[in-house]
Write a structure and sequence with these properties.
Elements: E1 9-12, E2 16-22, E3 30-37, E4 42-45, E5 55-59, E6 64-68
Antiparallel strand pairs: 1-2, 2-3, 4-5, 5-6
């Protein structure tokens, strides 16, 4: 969804980044949310702000993902 923050888990394969989120009803399972083809994508580094650090974007053909991490 556009503009909504959600905590997701990423799994990196050779040419694909897959992501999902934990299920509230079964926290040991993840719900598949999407896949990003890395061969068609590129990264854009974003400047830190006072409230958000470690931020970057994955620019894919169909969508741009803004990501930030704790570390």
């Amino acid at each position: 969804s556009h503009g909504i923050l959600s905590k997701v888990r990423f799994f990196l394969f050779n040419d694909l980044l897959v992501y999902g989120e934990k299920l509230r009803s079964a926290p040991h399972f993840l719900k598949f949310k999407g896949a990003i083809p890395l061969g068609l994508s590129w990264l854009r580094d974003l400047d830190d702000t006072p409230s958000v650090k470690n931020m970057f974007q994955i620019v894919a053909p169909q969508k741009t993902y803004t990501i930030f991490t704790d570390t």
